[in-house]
Design goal:
The chain is globular, with a radius of gyration of 13 Å. 13% of the residues are buried. The protein has 100 residues and is of the alpha+beta class. It has one domain: TATA-Binding Protein (2-Layer Sandwich), CATH 3.30.310. The chain has a six-stranded antiparallel beta sheet with strand order 1-2-6-5-4-3, covered by helices on one side.
């Protein structure tokens, strides 16, 4: 799995920002669970499009659908740039492990 694009979607009224992370392969349940290791996972596999939401310990929120090639990430106002950098580092490590 390779990250192919990160697109800024929106600046929210509260100062948070949303990005879309796009991959060259579909997000699977294993990847979702890896992303949720240090946070709270809400997963709805019974939905027609299995939806997940993850809230990390520092307030970053991920939303996506299993078998899609992207997910959205909301970075809260407080320290949003640092939180994005930390998330990007973690994601890079996870993607690297998926490739190996």
């Amino acid at each position: 799995m390779k990250l192919i694009n990160v697109i800024k979607l929106d600046d929210c009224f509260d100062g948070s920002v949303i990005f879309k992370y796009c991959f060259d392969a579909a997000i699977d349940e294993a990847m979702m669970r890896k992303l949720a290791e240090n946070g709270k996972l809400q997963y709805f596999p019974e939905f027609l499009k299995p939806f997940f939401k993850i809230i990390t310990c520092d307030g970053v929120q991920l939303k996506g659908i299993i078998r899609d090639y992207d997910f959205e990430v909301l970075f809260p106002f407080t320290n949003k740039q640092k939180k994005k950098e930390n998330f990007d580092t973690l994601l890079s490590q996870l993607v690297q492990n998926v490739m190996n």
